[in-house]
Design a protein that fits this description.
The protein has 226 residues and is of the alpha/beta class. Helix content is 54%, strand content 13%. Helix 4 packs parallel to helix 5.
């Protein structure tokens, strides 16, 4: 947040020499910003080089489920919960073009369900219980965990597999336990949570954009035949 020429930055990881009480330097701040942006771009370039084929497979597999009338369930914790809701909104609302709503639901948004299940069954079950309620064999689930080791995400994926759902993981680094628990896994090549999350939302936009395109073309073809 800026106040005139003075910047107050409470972010963790900011070098001490940049804090206002230490004697703020705009040159140092600009250098730090440039470093952060370059690292973000480096991780995205690595994502492109190492994960493009995996992301293409995720796009194709998810679109196929949605074409058959399935729906998408998404879940994660913290920032990954926000990503789940953001991605679901791209499907239900629209990404880039006017079209029919695409069924997608984040299992992180109903506070009554989350707290009831956590209270009665434990926090590890908050997503698995909802997958059991809403998931069918025609559906898909995206579990989001930057570490790949969130117990409730793994339990949610396990519940999805039990129902014959397509299971997709969004994670980072070497993928953690999520890597081997899902049908398809996007593991962002980075150990930094912030950059992993940036790539997750980029991947979510790519996936929603592709599915939107496929389903819009399918609808147009159906209308033409009618």
């Amino acid at each position: 947040m800026g106040y005139g020429n003075r910047v107050v930055n409470r972010n963790r990881g900011v070098p001490k020499q940049m804090l206002p009480e230490q004697g703020f330097s705009s040159r140092e701040l600009v250098a730090w910003i440039e470093e952060e942006v370059r690292e973000s771009l480096r991780v995205k370039q690595a994502l492109l080089q190492e994960c493009a084929e995996t992301l293409a497979a995720i796009c194709a597999a998810l679109a196929e489920r949605l074409e058959r009338g399935g729906k998408l369930l998404l879940f994660g914790n913290g920032g990954s919960a926000a990503d789940a809701q953001h991605i679901a909104a791209e499907f239900v609302g629209r990404y880039r073009c006017e079209r029919a709503a695409i069924p997608a639901m984040a299992l992180t948004a109903n506070s009554s369900t989350l707290t009831a299940v956590a209270n009665d069954y434990g926090y590890d079950e908050v997503f698995a219980r909802q997958v059991a309620a809403f998931g069918t064999k025609n559906d898909a689930a995206i579990g989001i965990s930057t570490s790949g080791n969130s117990p409730n995400v793994l339990r949610g994926i396990s519940a999805a597999r039990e129902r014959g759902m397509l299971t997709i993981g969004f994670t980072g680094g070497v993928g953690g336990s999520l890597q081997s628990a899902v049908d398809l896994c996007l593991a962002v090549p980075s150990a930094a949570t912030s950059h992993i999350q940036e790539c997750h939302i980029l991947a979510g936009h790519i996936v929603s954009g592709y599915c939107e395109r496929v389903l819009t073309e399918q609808a147009a073809q159906a209308a033409g035949k009618g």
